[in-house]
Amino acid sequence: MNRKIARKRKPERTHDEPREEASGRDTSSVTGLGINTRGHRILRDLQAFLVPILAAILLQSLTYLAFVARAGPQWQIALPVVGMLALVPILSAITLSAFRRLEAPIIAAVVIVATYFSFVVTVVSALRIPVGFTALAAVLPVTMAVMAIGNIRFHQRRSTRVALIAFDGDDVPLSLLGRARISRITDPGASIAAYDTILIEPRQHHTPEWSSLLSRCHVSGVDIMPWALFLEIRQGRVHIPEFEVSSLSYTPSQMLYARSKRMLDLLAVIVTLPLTLPLAALTALYIFLLDGGSVLFVQHRRGFGGRVFRMYKFRTMYRGTGGGATGSNDKRIILGCGLIRKLRLDEVPQLYNILIGDMSLIGPRPVAIYIARASTIFEPKYILRDLMLPGITGWAQVNAGYAATTHEEIEKLAYDLYYIKHLSVDLDLQILFKTVITVLFGRGAR
Predict the structure, then answer these.
(1) Helical axes 133-156 vs 39-48, angle rounded to 10°
(2) Region 31-41: what's the mean pLDDT?
(3) Tell me: the pLDDT tens digits for 382-405?
(4) Is the pLDDT assigned to residue 71 strictly greater than 80?
(5) Which of 139, 129, 56, 130 lies closest to 90, judged by CA?
(6) pTM for the whole thing?
(7) Are 302 and 372 in contact (CB under 8 A)?
(8) pLDDT digits (tens, 9 = 90+) for 78-94
(9) pLDDT tens for residues 165-185?
């Protein structure tokens, strides 16, 4: 007997029931979180590189043509090379914007520019286009420098659309970051499509209440960053109340560089001796002829680990005029020594301090004992400066200049702690560059 098998109808799902079959085949739930809404960010990142790209193309073209022109005008040969070289800053900017989270903007720019430059030169050579290799050697550092500066600025200003998740005490970061430029999120279900970076207070926002919003940030490519770290990146200084010793967690590359700094300091001193020795001799002779006596000024300063050492400088004040802070147009300064101080020639004897291990070329500037004591009483974290060898120049010196009061000294502390925390080749290169600019324009010296 034939029996008809009745086909059972599957019950209709309500909207409240999960769609199990969709979990492996339907990505609408993921795209709904915003994963497909971040493409425009790449274009905006490239716009941030527009000026460096144009500057690099212009400077490298002028440099190449200037070298080629010395052998006679050969524009038909030179212009194709100039056109190919224009690809280097363009491709470099695209790559650098994709690696916007790298913490070594200078090294990254140098490596990427060198890579694309080598590729372009290889292509030009393969096409049998005549090139001037001396001109190319002059173009490469120009392009590297421009793109490195552009990448530094990109990292400092990469997030223009920023929001802070509300928390108890958020008036502090809002006042420091600027209320007009930072949006405030109070609802865990708020849309994040308008932002590139979401700032959090880790101690209050890693909770079930905010987990959904933070998950949406991860999926949609929105950066999540503690507000104190964001402030550091924007201002190049730490927020002292939020800074703790536990913040000093060095990466392997930082540890390697910290151990190699001593060798680099010695190498720098030895290599520059042919320049520094004549300058030191002329400076000492000038001071002796105008005021006689000892040309050196020796003062006890606090150094690494709180150890007191003797720091040497050229004496730039008349004998018997006393010490203390130096003011503008100070009458105690020997005639002509104002220029010596602006050019930092009075600090050349500190190269000896580097040789004997009391100082480094770059680090927190050592201060007199009485200043260190007064500053430590005012702010106990001031003692954390002693975790690193003091330097002839430093991040605080090139950003905050001369400190005449305890309050200004604490302002400089924020920069010194930033340097200790973010120690790197990149940061030291920026300090050296800014030091040269500071010396040329005479800023920060009295």
Answers:
(1) 120
(2) 50
(3) 999 999 999 999 999 999 878 888
(4) no
(5) 56
(6) 0.81
(7) yes
(8) 888 999 999 999 999 99
(9) 999 888 888 888 877 678 899
Going by C-beta distance under 8 Å and a sequence separation of 6 or more, which residues neighbour residue 222? 34, 38, 192, 195, 196, 197, 198, 216
Residue bearing tokens 């924020």: 414
Record the tokens describing residue 69, joined without a space.
Answer: 């022109």
Place of tokens 């001031």: 382
